[in-house]
Design a protein that fits this description.
This protein has 12 helices and 9 strands. By secondary structure, the protein is an alpha/beta fold. The protein has 2 domains: about 140 residues, Rossmann fold; about 150 residues, 3-Layer(aba) Sandwich (Rossmann fold), CATH 3.40.50. The protein has a 5-stranded parallel sheet. A 4-stranded parallel sheet has the order 2-1-3-4, with helices on both faces. The structure holds phosphoric acid mono(formamide)ester and norvaline. Phosphoric acid mono(formamide)ester binds next to helix 2.
Length: about 300
């Protein structure tokens, strides 16, 4: 049966941990210049309804390094932009390519695509989740702190797609997550419930200082995700006390990591000093998208690393 990655909970804890091991091994092979063309002859269609730098470039170069090929597809250029149905597109693309990655406004569009596709479908970010980001994030934490279980992660700001996936993954990777967000911008209630039912340790607070106390990782993301631009003014007002500053970082563990999936908005969700500071691991985090996704593609397309 084909496997999709639409929610991070489509993986089990042991699959997630094996993926991270594979990603670390692939990173080493690449650093040593050793060939690892495990996907020779395979192809990945990438459908992007929204902008992307990291996801597009890491999937595209990842496929090339694995000996395969990736196609960048803008819905405006596909017949889907002229009304061809998602389910028809899914079935047709399945006859050409080995897997499909989709970045969509609506999570349901990815679910619908996956229902009709005969090949694995990967969520490259939806309004609800960003599972590929979380595999790379946990790999980064593994590299810097040695493990993810038992660590304390503080999320400051918008309870958005990235936050929701991190909340869910706490049930897989054994960390405690505390989310500090203003009223109306908490992570989805059904997501929090799902994470807790699956064994996740999730705390929701208002106060960023309370969230970062003893945290091993302090993470944030933009206050205005793609698709939420109409709520810009409300958001800028609501989040004004949620900037990650050096003084906030100083309230976390002394060696706490600062993480951000990028793109970042200096002076809003994080100061320049913090993102450029010694605790920031954002460039490793961005690089690890490449290795984590290569591991995912190899796993989905059926070869051992
Ligand atoms: N973090 C992330 O997904 O970045 P892009 O939007 O550039 O792909
Ligand atoms: N939360 C952001 C992440 C971008 C990678 C967004 O959805 O725009």
């Amino acid at each position: 049966m084909k496997r999709d990655l639409i929610s991070i909970l489509d993986l089990t804890g042991s699959e997630l941990s094996a993926l991270i091991e594979d990603a670390i091994r692939l990173k080493m092979l690449r650093q040593e210049g050793r060939p690892h063309q495990f996907l020779f002859g395979k192809s990945l269609a990438m459908v992007f309804e929204k902008s992307s730098t990291r996801t597009r470039v890491s999937f595209e170069t990842g496929m090339a390094e694995l000996g395969g090929h990736a196609l960048f597809l803008n819905p405006q250029d596909l017949q889907i932009g002229r009304g061809e149905e998602v389910r028809d597109t899914a079935r047709v693309l399945s006859r050409y390519v080995s897997a499909v990655m989709i970045r969509a406004y609506r999570h349901e569009s990815i679910e619908e695509f996956a229902r009709y596709a005969e090949v694995p479908v990967i969520n490259g970010l939806s309004d609800r989740e960003h599972p590929c980001q979380i595999i790379a994030d946990l790999m980064t934490i593994r590299e810097h702190l040695g493990h993810t279980d038992g660590i304390r992660l503080a999320w400051i700001g918008d309870g958005n797609n990235v936050c929701n996936s991190l909340v869910l993954a706490s049930a897989l990777a054994g960390y405690e997550i505390t989310v500090a967000s203003p009223d109306g911008y908490q992570p989805r209630a059904d997501t929090v419930e799902k994470a807790r039912n699956a064994g996740g340790n999730v705390t929701l607070v208002r106060d960023p200082v309370e969230a970062v106390r003893d945290a091993d990782v302090v993470a944030t993301d933009t206050w205005i995700s793609m698709g939420e631009e109409a709520d810009r003014e409300n958001r800028l007002r609501s989040f004004q006390d949620y900037t990650i500053t050096s003084s906030l970082m100083n309230k976390a563990s002394p060696e706490a990591l600062f993480m951000h999936c990028l793109p970042a908005h200096r002076g809003r969700e994080v100061t320049d000093e913090v993102i450029e500071g010694r605790q920031s691991v954002v460039w490793d985090e961005a690089e690890n998208r490449l290795h984590a996704q290569k591991a995912l593609l190899v796993k989905m397309l059926g070869r051992d690393v």
